[in-house]
Design a protein that fits this description.
This protein is α+β, with helices and mostly antiparallel strands. It has one domain. Helices cover 51% and strands 23% of the residues. It has a seven-stranded mixed beta sheet. Helix 3 packs antiparallel against helix 4. It is elongated, with a radius of gyration of 22 Å. Keywords: Membrane, Transmembrane, Transmembrane helix.
Length: 168
C-alpha cells in the first residue's frame, strides 16, 4: 500500500511515533506517550501498539517500506498476533483446561452433570470472547497505524495501472 509520505518523512514519523524497546508483554510501566513501541531501521519495522490494554500489546505490525516515487512510499506490512502473545494464550488455555481436569479428578464424586456443563460452557465463552476481542483489536490497531502513517488504499484505477505495468 502507498503512504502519502516520502521515505524520509515515513522514517522520521516512525522515529517520532515509536518508542524503541523490546516486545515485552508485561511492560506495564513502559508507556512513553508514543503510540507505538518496537524496532525499525531504514527499510523494515516491527512495532506493537503502546497501550496499557493487554490485547493491544499482543498485536504486532511487521513490514518494510521503500520509496515508490518522489511523493510517496510503498509500505508492505502484516498485522498479526505476536509470538509472545500466541505462547501466552496457549499456556493460559492449557492451564485452564488442566485446572478443569483437576476439579473433575479431585471433586468428581460431588460434581453433577449440570455443573460440569456450566463450567465447560463458561470456558468456551471465555475463549470466544478472547477471539472476538483480538479480532476487533487487530482491526483498531491497523486503523491507527494507517492514520498515523497516512497509508491509504490504492484506487481501482491505480491498481489496474500497476498490474498492467507489472505484466509488460
Amino acid at each position: 500500500m502507498k503512504s502519502k509520505l516520502t521515505k524520509a518523512e515515513f522514517r522520521e514519523r516512525l522515529s517520532l511515533r515509536t518508542a524503541v524497546s523490546d516486545f515485552t508483554i508485561f511492560n506495564l510501566l513502559g508507556f512513553s506517550g508514543k503510540p507505538f513501541r518496537g524496532i525499525f531501521d531504514d527499510s523494515t519495522f516491527a512495532i506493537v501498539r503502546n497501550s496499557g490494554w493487554k490485547n493491544a500489546r499482543v498485536i504486532e505490525i511487521t513490514g518494510e517500506y521503500q520509496a515508490s516515487d518522489d511523493n510517496s512510499t510503498e509500505v508492505t506490512y502484516d498485522v498479526g498476533i505476536s509470538k509472545n502473545g500466541l505462547i501466552l494464550s496457549y499456556v493460559g488455555g492449557v492451564i485452564m483446561l488442566a485446572g478443569i481436569a483437576a476439579i473433575f479428578f479431585f471433586d468428581g464424586d460431588s460434581m453433577n452433570a449440570s455443573g460440569a456443563l456450566a463450567l465447560t460452557g463458561f470456558v468456551i465463552l471465555c475463549f470466544l470472547l478472547q477471539f472476538v476481542s483480538l479480532r476487533i483489536t487487530k482491526r483498531l490497531v491497523d486503523q491507527r497505524f494507517r492514520e498515523e502513517f497516512e497509508i491509504g488504499q490504492e484506487s481501482e484505477e491505480e491498481e489496474w495501472e500497476r498490474l498492467a505495468g507489472a505484466n509488460r
